[in-house]
From TrEMBL, chain A:
Residues 1-22 are annotated as: Disordered. Belongs to the SKP1 family. Involved in ubiquitination and subsequent proteasomal degradation of target proteins. Together with CUL1, RBX1 and a F-box protein, it forms a SCF E3 ubiquitin ligase complex. The functional specificity of this complex depends on the type of F-box protein. In the SCF complex, it serves as an adapter that links the F-box protein to CUL1. Residues 23-81 form the SKP1 component POZ domain. Pathway: Protein modification; protein ubiquitination. This is SKP1-like protein. The keyword Coiled coil does not apply. The lineage of its organism: Eukaryota, Viridiplantae, Streptophyta, Embryophyta, Tracheophyta. SMART domains: Skp1. Residues 1-12 have a biased composition (Low complexity). It comes from Oryza meridionalis. Part of a SCF (SKP1-cullin-F-box) protein ligase complex. GO terms for biological process: jasmonic acid mediated signaling pathway; protein ubiquitination; ubiquitin-dependent protein catabolic process.
Automatic annotation (TrEMBL), chain B:
Residues 14-48 form the F-box domain. InterPro entries: F-box-like_dom_sf, F-box_dom, SCF_F-box_component. This is F-box domain-containing protein. It comes from the Eukaryota.
Length: 173, 357
């Protein structure tokens, strides 16, 4: 999926002559070019609107906020969801299995998971963003407030009385 | 690698910008616990926008769920029904104590996951949160239903209705334009809330189609056509056969629309234009009383609910302000109960400004 930018442009040109599936080049913040199908790129609402507005399809899309490692992983998701059909029960099950494996792998490296989440947010890839935020939510939902405070790196600024009031409200019902 | 150290740094924090997105995907009880993490979080996790976001994502894993309120004194539970379960229902919570001696009816329309129940003979009102299995006796009689027998007046862009209990006040509503394409004929037009958007569904008897429009963003947004469904292919759902077809919910996993035709429910898939019929025993008994509700995704839920119910009996029921919308996130006050109460209107009424005095 990753090629040099010269080859990428050539590949994109060749593909564009084909009717139907154009190729689109995405460039990471390190200048590395990734050539993907239009269907794959359209998973990103950000790129979709740029393509539909008749934007710079030929020039490709520089993504200054995304590094190569993250972009490669994001494209892996987009390829699976953009290039495959999801009409039948079997096809949907296959995609669900892909998602499960995909997120299990990401979950092992939290910092990378956060990078992918940020990229999904920046590129507006709804499915991927839902997948990663759900994964983070599942990780922290069983944790104590103290552990969550550490995970988000937040300062404790409530007085004992504030906390008492909030807890008091929560235990009712 | 752009940031090789990022993978190895153990102290990397979850970025702040996702806090709400992440918490919107957590069980209500975890959200509640996390409100005491900091001042900023307590505020952020209590806003209306967050409550709505949380509610919209509630059933992302198992598709829509409808809550079936009790309809008689003999009913002992509030049940949930989902399209996957078809003819079986799952108990959510026990009917509030003190209502067994007479008829118990839902009072008004559900609002933000909360349901108002009225025990007629006991003259009691309960706010229930079926998702969390919580119930509270309202401290006082819910404020004013509007007196629909008296014509409302329109002053300064707002509709004014006399309250049934006059000394309690006058109800004031905003008005908004209906979808421009909505015909002014006798066909059934209903309001629905689908995926957090205000929708209007119109069934045309002549063409046997249902059109659904959605308000794009907030009160100022434009109406856009969401679906035009050719119901002639499914006789049970045709506007000629069914008295009223109501879109109940949207499955947030794949966008399918759950249609209630009174005696049958169906899942409409716009991509393949198919309708999968779901039959439910006695659904006509509680049709259109259903509300979309939160899934807590826990097998222990009904057990926990009954435990809570027992506790609420012994504690003489907590005051209403402690019941939490969407299973957790906020208290309830009189004006909110007024909203619950007033949602029964079928007009183009969108929000109240002065529900209580």
């Amino acid at each position: 999926m990753a090629t040099g930018s010269g080859a990428a442009a050539a590949a994109a040109d060749a593909e564009e002559k084909e009717s139907g599936s154009r190729m689109i080049t995405l460039t990471s913040n390190e200048g590395k070019a990734f050539v993907v199908t239009e269907a794959s790129a359209r998973q990103s609402a950000t790129i979709r609107s740029m393509v539909d507005d008749g934007g710079c399809v030929d020039k490709g899309f520089p993504l200054p906020n995304v590094d190569s490692k993250t972009l490669a992983r994001v494209i892996q998701y987009c390829d699976e969801h953009g290039n495959k059909e999801a009409h039948t029960v079997d096809e949907r099950a296959a995609l669900a299995k892909f998602d499960k494996d995909f997120i299990a792998e990401l979950d092992a490296d939290k910092a990378f998971l956060y990078d992918v989440t940020m990229a999904a947010n920046y590129l507006h890839i709804q499915g991927l963003f839902a997948l990663t935020t759900q994964c983070i939510a599942d990780t922290i939902k069983g944790k104590t407030p103290e552990e969550i405070r550490t995970a988000f790196g937040i300062e404790y600024d409530l007085t004992a009385q504030d906390e008492e009031e909030i807890k008091e409200e929560d235990t009712h019902a | 690698m752009a940031s090789p150290e990022s993978s190895s740094a153990p102290a990397r924090h979850i970025p702040d910008e996702f806090v709400e997105d992440i918490f919107a995907r957590m069980p209500a009880r975890s959200v509640l616990r996390c409100r005491c993490l900091s001042r900023a979080w307590a505020a952020a996790l209590s806003t209306d926008a967050f409550v709505d976001h949380h509610l919209r994502l509630a059933n992302r894993r198992g598709g829509p769920k409808l809550c079936i309120p009790p309809r008689s004194a003999s009913a002992d539970a509030i049940n949930a029904w989902s399209p996957e379960a078809e003819t079986t229902t799952a108990p959510l919570m026990a009917v509030p104590h003190g209502t067994r001696n007479g008829r118990i009816i839902p009072y008004g329309r559900p609002y933000r996951g909360l349901l108002l129940l009225r025990a007629i003979f006991a003259r009691l009102y309960f706010v229930c949160n079926p998702s969390a299995g919580e119930v509270a006796l309202t401290a006082s009689r819910p404020p004013i239903p509007a007196d629909v027998g008296v014509p409302p007046v329109h002053v300064g862009g707002k509709m004014h209705w006399m309250g049934e209990q006059r000394r309690l006040g006058i109800l004031v509503f905003d008005t908004m334009p209906a979808p421009p394409a909505l015909p002014d004929d006798a066909g059934g037009a209903v309001l629905a809330a689908l995926a957090g958007k205000l929708c209007v569904a119109h069934s045309c008897r002549e063409t046997e189609t249902m059109s659904i429009w959605a308000k794009s963003a907030g009160d100022e947004g434009e109406w856009e056509t969401l679906h035009v469904i050719d119901l002639a292919r499914w006789p049970a759902f045709s506007p000629r056969a069914a008295e009223l077809v109501v879109p109940m919910a949207v499955d947030c996993r794949d966008g399918r629309v759950l249609l209630d035709a009174g005696k049958a429910l169906g899942y409409y898939d716009a991509r393949s234009t198919t309708l999968e019929t779901k039959r439910v025993a006695k659904i006509y008994l509680y049709r259109r009383m259903g509300m979309e509700m939160r899934d807590q995704g826990s097998a222990a839920r009904s057990r926990a609910a009954s435990a809570r119910h027992r506790r609420s009996r012994t504690q003489c029921l907590a005051p209403a302000r402690h019941i939490h919308a969407t299973g957790a996130v906020r208290g309830i006050d009189r004006s909110r109960i007024a909203v619950l109460r007033d949602r029964r209107f079928r007009g183009m009424v969108v929000r109240d400004r002065d529900g209580s005095t």
